[in-house]
Task: structure prediction
Amino acid sequence: AQLPVDLRFRDHNGKSVALGDVLAGEVPTIVTFNYSSCPQLCSLQLNALTATLAKAQWRVGKQFKIVTFVLDPHEAPERTQKTRAHYLERLPEGSIADGWTFLLADKPGEEAAIRRIADGLGFQYKYIQERAEYAHPAALMFLTPTGKLNQYAYGVDYAPTDFNFWIAKAGLAEPQTATGFLLRCFHWDSAAKDKSGVARSAMRYGAAGFVVLLLAALGIWTVLRRT
Result:
């Protein structure tokens, strides 16, 4: 897939930018999809990414870039700045902070551009209105210097040696197969699917069955003793 580089977004500073300008250069780009109010999976993924960056051979801003698309079209740049700063603090020495860009909807509430990028990369997500959260997978997507999708890396566990290899292959534009296990953020609606009554009944029947078996065993043992 070739990303539409003419799409416009706001960066973490609130400045309107074209995607092509962000991707421009001679180094590959890692793409992630996250948002600041994500209850768990986003932080797991980005924590794992920064932990890998600390052990990897390559440095963000030098041999590769990172672009994080913010899934929530209503997220304010001020919130995004805080999230970005949190992870920039974890980058190893030699990294260049400007090499990691967070991109938000060009206009608050308009997710069309974000959705178009996600669809183009095969990244499927869904907004759960009842919880005001997004159900989405954890994946790194590696782009060639020209902005073409080169590889998926699923999950939240990235070995530094693999990471170096993925960067190198993306830089050379040598397509690779997907790797890792697909980890998706699922949501349980306890109000709509309350199984507590079934669980309580199962526990009651199970306890009753255990008592019956115990009494039967004692009866057999008593008979055997008398004989």
